[in-house]
Amino acid sequence: MTFKTTSDFKNIVLEDIPLIDVRAPIEFKKGAFINSINLPIMNDEERHLVGICYKEKGNHDAVKLGHELVSGNIKDERIKSWESFITKNPKSMIYCFRGGSRSSISQEWIEKYAGKEIVKLEGGYKAFRNYLIDELDAEVQSSKPIVLAGFTGTGKTILLNELENSIDLEGLANHRGSTFGRHTTPQPTQINFENALACKLIKHRAKGYSHIILEDEGGNVGLNFIPKPLAAYFNAGDLVVLEAPVEERINLTLQEYVINSQSEYIAHYCDEALGLQEWFNYMSNSIIRVKKRLGLERFTQIYTYFEKAYANQLKTGIYDFHQDWIKLFLTDYYDPMYKHQLDTTTKNILFRGNNSDVLEYLKSLK
């Protein structure tokens, strides 16, 4: 019996093909692909036992043990989970680590017992991962990078997401890229960040854009880092500087880091009081972490304003009190750093302007 296979990884990315990952959950958590779901042929314990058997007795006995462990109702349930996913996603494909026994057996069972065909990835996870790593090479990029810069609170990420030819690195890393950048949900593993970034670059290149617009992130976003050659390629791009009055920046920061962030914490903990307290704890610790860089006097002033603002918010339900500490943090901490960077940069500044002017300019750079 001949089963279908493919190594057309580019098409998988461009067509957003759903993928069934039949590796064990412990493998999936370390790294997987976008549009993939973990429906393992063996769970972690079963895989562990088969691995021991393979080392002690060889492949034949290991395969035999695997069939014994995954049989009867266990086997039926796993086939049903694959069948259900394929029914909902008819273009689905399947993979294991190297495209060997696990995906081959799964593919055979799906056709034999579920009556459905599914394509297997040649070389499995490892081959697809290597393809994506190659696509992160700076030398294969064809678009000219443009770096969107500007003081904190100007709304760079909001503007970036209005452009078709941009890549939101902060979105991929699930981090705002600042002192208070962490979300309630964890950042992706480094492998998953790289896989997602590679897919974005492949799609961007397939559309033939001459420019790629990115924020000025340096080499990392939170705990995720951009491969050094690619980061250097991005950072070598010319600058476009987004400008906004300080009052507008305060309001944007208030909306994102206080109002929206508190709502995120409340939703995450499913409890308003607990969510607000966890938000306060995180923000408080974040301010304390930069105490040395702020200096004792500025730190004390900012932290005092922060505590008073939070207490007033709990009492009155009004967020406006947070504007005081936000203004100090922007003007006394972030602004001097960004001003120094812009004053000393050797990069070419292509354009400066407000939100509407910068958006119009960047949209002209396809």
From TrEMBL:
SMART domains named among the record's database cross-references: RHOD
Rhodanese domain boundaries: 13-137
Keywords assigned: Selenium
Recorded GO MF terms: tRNA 2-selenouridine synthase activity
InterPro entries: AAA_SelU, P-loop_NTPase, Rhodanese-like_dom, Rhodanese-like_dom_sf, SelU
GO BP terms in the entry: tRNA wobble uridine modification
Name this polypeptide is given: tRNA 2-selenouridine synthase
Species name: Clostridium gasigenes
